[in-house]
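Justification of computing resources. Each target in the renewal requires a structure prediction run like the one illustrated here; the chain below, 467 residues long, is used simply to show the kind of job we budget for.
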Amino acid sequence: MTHRTEHYTEVRRVLWQVLAANLAVTILKIVLGTVTGALAVVADGFHSLVDSSSNLIGLAAIRLAQRPADERHPYGYRRYETVGALAIGGMLFVAAYEIGKSIVERFSAGGTPELTPLTVILVALTFPVNVLIYTLERRAGERLKSEILLADAAHTRTDLLVTLSVLGSLAGVWLGLPWLDSVVAAGVVVMILRAAVEILRDSAGALTDAVAVDPDQIEHIAQGVPGVLYVHRVRSRGTSDSVFVDLHVKVYSGMSTEQAHAVASEVERQVKAQIPNAVDVLVHIEPAREREAPRWDRIAYDLRQIADGMGLGIHDLHVHNNEQGGYALEMHLEMPADILLGEAHDLAEDFEKRVYAASTRPNTVITHLEPLDREVIELENRIDPAFEAEIRELITTYVGENILELNIYFSQHHANVAVRLCLPAEMPLTEAHTVAENIERDLLTRFPNIYRVTVHVEPRADTDERR
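Resulting structure tokens:
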């Protein structure tokens, strides 16, 4: 069962419970009125039966809203829930009109409200039930972010307000102030109209594509993704439980299509992760002007694009100024391990020519040819415990007991070492990197049979959680 299906199943369950409670109150009024012969109470029971229609409207709207997207409705049917809330808002206006009409008639014809002991009993019985229904339905609506539940809860509140007007009438009779009934009823009309306007405002906002999420929040999220230079034209629409977002993101113009797509996918993932109700995020990629991208980024993107186009890889990139007034590039150029030196040299020369012709135009390009083994390494023999102890002892001289994990394996008669250790979280990254490099250098120097060393450093603050 999908999250959307679970959501609508829960909303529908709440609506059925509320409908059952409302019908129970309605039946109670009709039975009491029939037994006692109080026609006014019977009429009030049938009025409550009409009020239960808001629950039926909600159930019908949810049934339509949960239907999956199709060719006619590619964005889905979620807005039927908004339409249902809009209908309940209209019912509130009708209720306010009926009460207002009664107030005018009372002022025109005069008279004193008639209150029987049975009326008082009904108020005592139905008021707590309606309070419970309203409270539970509103809490469920806020928890599920359901427009229809919140609107129906507001409709249930009208019964509470009408009950308060009955209490006002009762107080007026006891105090000898018959006009108090009309004053309280007028206050009830104002409160009902206010609730109706709020429902119609929220529903109309969703139907007319009002802003659903603060654009600054979305921009802040997207701007935190590496590779994003600028964010603009941020838009959002939808309801409280389903938001659609689209935005324009500028990246360096030298990016490959694959790189730009990866940036867009990460922006989409971050927005959905930090805005839980975002069901769809559309990221439009645009090339940034040269002046909008930092120089190092422009150089790195150009190099990666050239290398990707040749099926090569690069790492350990260094850029520095030189005496000619330009800059020099130094990097490791990854290529297949099963080719000859002459073939590797030709690839490197072709790569360097393309770099010289690129928009960044360096003065010097120096590449270190590095064979990249693209096969899964097969382990050969078990590690000598004494050899592992020597390696652990050397690493301990740098980080003490802060070694989280040490793995040693042999392949092609050479040892490969992978170590995970922790350092203080407040240590500068450059200093932590120096520690890792010193460990790598010393291991390679002291143990000639070690072919590769990988040192992973993480902050000490995370140690307990990771363990």
